[in-house]
Input
Amino acid sequence: MTKSVTLRRPDDWHLHLRDGAMLQAVASFSGHFGRAIIMPNLVPPVVTGAQAAAYRDRIRAALAPEMTLRPLMTLYLTETTDPADVLAAHAQGIISAVKLYPAGATTNSASGVRDFDKVRGVLEAMAQAGIPLCFHGEVTDPAVDIFDREAAFIDRVLDPIRRATPGLRVVMEHITTSDGVDYVAGNDDIGATITTHHLVINRNHILAGGIRPHYYCLPVAKRETHRLALRRAATSGDARFFLGTDSAPHPDRAKESACGCAGCFTAPNTMSILAQVFEEEGALDRLEGFTSLHGAAFYRMEPNEDRIRLVRREIPAAYPTHIPAGDETVTVFDPGFPLYWHLEDPA
Ligand code: DOR
Ligand code: ZN
Output
């Protein structure tokens, strides 16, 4: 008997679509999602409501009319962000959240926050208005080992900010450790996104037997015990955990370099990979919560009305290994196993 699962249309609560030729190349690969929280780390970053609205319009224009994706915009928090601008952009329905990058933590984060006291006023205004704050949760202190930066961030930054700002609704983005899982599971007013790739790879995939730049992302994948903790969290049914792919395309040239940049491009095959992961965990009945219900509830939105279907077939689904992007190519994330789950849309 053919195995299949029907889901409310999924949402992606953390997505990089970039701009220009890259946006044109990648947007359609997320077209089957319902909504996506769009990351603002462009060059220059999206820091005003007007910039967010213009970027939203460029994204809409890059999507074919039959595509379901609706972009939900974010502002990039800087030390000079004016609380009034954030409140106005939110009140006008332009933005759904604000993104905090510690300065220097990742791709295009140079304009991020160094001194967290300087954003206190914005965070208080956001707490009052109920605007979610999405965190890139890694400290940038060079003395902290890169594999410990998420855990250090929880103790040094996240927990103090949450204590100082009651009511602030935060999303710990792309958690990669059991420390992240435990912190989120024990608290309220907090959600966490989990990426597809962190459910699949551990740090050996990046480094054992040769260096594999297409598995390098930030936060970097950790040891196997952490991957297993992420799998348990994603498949637990706990509504604090939801899908944010962090699909982050870079030209192959920039990844396959002496200093390769961070990011895995998972948009095309994410749903097939997730179905396989949830099947392996005996949790196919919880896939819909993770991809289509929990995130919407956190963002205080209704789940999507329409549905998609995933069907398990004997022949693996065919996804491109690379896609063209202007004069460049972008490598699609290779999970390392055949993808028997095929996406049928509409259901
Ligand atoms: O791997 C990543 N890529 N992590 C991030 O935090 C940023 C992203 C990007 O924009 O390339
Ligand atoms: Zn990201």
Remarks:
- The mean pLDDT is 97.
- The chain has one domain: 7-306.
- The pocket of DOR (ligand 1) is lined by residues 16, 41, 106-107, 136, 217-218, 246, 248, 262-263 (CB under 6 Å).
